[in-house]
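Sequence only, no structure available. Ideas?
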Amino acid sequence: MLQVDALIASTKTVFLKSPKCLRAFHSKCPGIPEPPQPILIRWGTWLQAAFYYAEYFQQIKAVILQFNLDEAAAIKESQTKFEDIFVETALKKYCEEL
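Reply:
I predicted one. Tokens follow.
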């Protein structure tokens, strides 16, 4: 579960801190809403983010993997988590259980 949390947190940071990354997201995924920005102390927002990433995992992964990992630590962390097959499995399993 910590890996899923790291995926959500790092990807939130990527899009929150970089308008360039957000523009890339909008151009590559025009029909998908922006990634949520969960608030750590509000579990409902985190759950919404988990469901969002479970639904749009492959599309967001494609966007994140196109970024230069040397630009920011959050990009590198997010790319690492998206490439980890266990993170995707854990995320989907967690969402199915709810």
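The chain is about 75% helix and 0% strand.
Hope that gets you unstuck.
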